[in-house]
Amino acid sequence: MPTPAATASARSGIRVRPLTEHIGAEVENVDLSRPISQAEFEDINDALVTHSVLVFRDQDLPPAMHVDFSARFGRLVGHLVKRFSVEDYPEVTYISNVRNEKGEMIGADRAGMVWHSDMSYFPRPMLGSMLYGVECPPEGADTEFASMFAAHDALPASLHALLARSRGVHDYAWHYANYLSHRPPLTEDEKAKAPPVAHPALRTHPVSGRKAVYLSEGLTRTVEGMDEEAGRRLVVEVSQFATQPQFVYRHKWRPRDLVFWDNRSTMHRATEFDNRHRRLMRRTTVEGDVPF
Ligand SMILES: [Fe+2]
Known about the structure:
Blueprint: E1 7-8, E2 15-18, E3 25-28, H1 38-51, E4 53-56, H2 63-70, E5 85-86, E6 89-96, E7 126-135, E8 143-147, H3 148-154, H4 157-164, E9 167-170, H5 172-179, H6 188-192, E10 197-200, E11 202-204, E12 211-213, E13 220-223, H7 228-242, E14 248-251, E15 258-262, E16 266-270, E17 280-287
Parallel strand pairs: 3-4
Antiparallel strand pairs: 1-2, 2-3, 4-15, 5-6, 6-17, 7-15, 7-17, 8-14, 8-16, 9-10, 9-13, 11-12
C-alpha cells in the first residue's frame, strides 16, 4: 500500500504529510513558538488521532512554550524521578546523557530502549508525549514508533480472541529492576507512587473508537490471572508481533524537531548511539483516560 497523500487544512493552513502507510505524519506550516489558534489545535489533534505520530521540524521551543503547547491537550505529568526535571519547569523532563558539574546525570539516560507506551503503569496512562531535540547525535539515537492500530488489525483470529478477554499487568518497579539497573535504585517513595496496574490488552481509542494493542515488552510484566511465566511469554509474543517493520516509523532526529505521539495507539523505543556524543532532549507527557 502506498503512503497516503498530503492534505492541507482550509481553516488553519496546516499541511499534513503522511510518512508511512500506517503511522507518522509531518506537520508543516505551523509555528509552535507562539500560542496556536483553536483551528490549529483542532487540526493537530485530528492529525494525531489519525496518524498517531506527528513530526514538527525546525521549531523554536523553549520550555515555557513546550509546556504551553502540551497543556492544550491535557494535564501534564512530570517524571516520577524529580531530579530529571528542567529547572523551574517540573513538567518538563530531560532525556539526556549529559552530566552536571557534580558528575550526575541531569536527565533520564538510556531511557525507553525496549518497546513501551509511556507511563502505562499508571491508572490513567499518558494520552501523548512530546519530545524536543536540543542536541542530537549525528547518527543513531533514532526513535522507532509502531502502530498498535495496524498491529491490532493484523492479529490472527485466535490471538485476537484471547487478547480481547485479557488484561496486561504494567509494572514500573519490575521494569526499572530489569531494564534500568545502570541507574541508582528507585526509592521506596518512588516505588509507592507506581504500584502495578492492569489494563485491557486491547484498548479502544477514546476519540476514534479504533482498537489498539496495549501490551508492551518493556512495561507489561505479565497477563492478569495467568501463570507469571506463561503470561510473560504471551506479552513478549504479542509485543514482537506488533512491532514488525511494516507497522513502524523510524524517526531520525535533527535539533529543533518536536515529535508528538499518541500513547493510546503506539509503542516506541529508543535506539543505540555512540555515547561520546551529547544527547539533550526535553519531554512533556499529557495525561489521558482510563483505558477501556
Ligand atoms: Fe518512552
